[in-house]
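Researcher: Re-running this chain for the archive, since the previous output was lost when a drive failed. Same request as before.
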Amino acid sequence: MPESYGITEENLAAQDFLAGNHPVVIIPVVIEDTVGVLTAGRVLGRNSTDYKYYDWDPDASDGTEVARAILAKDVADETGDVSAIAWIHGEFRKNALGWGTTDPVKIAKGMRDLQASGIYVKADQT
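Model: Regenerated structure tokens:
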């Protein structure tokens, strides 16, 4: 039986930012201890040196400028690295995700990055 990481498909579907019935895939990730508090739905980048996940930073040049995952559960500010879970495949609402920027050009780039990884971000319906 696959590991659930404390979350089930049923309660994933109840999340406000899960947009559709497209199957989701979650993986365990290590969040760098310098990140601080992050809420579910935050867009993450992965450092190309230590392979830990950090808050996505479109202006960085260490690998975290590529949006790769979406945090599935809140992460508290703890001393040391934090084990967490993140979505690497699924369908999500654009405006419900934590981008860390309001720049539409940077968000569009992040959306393209996520799509290349199998994460489909849909514009909210008005």
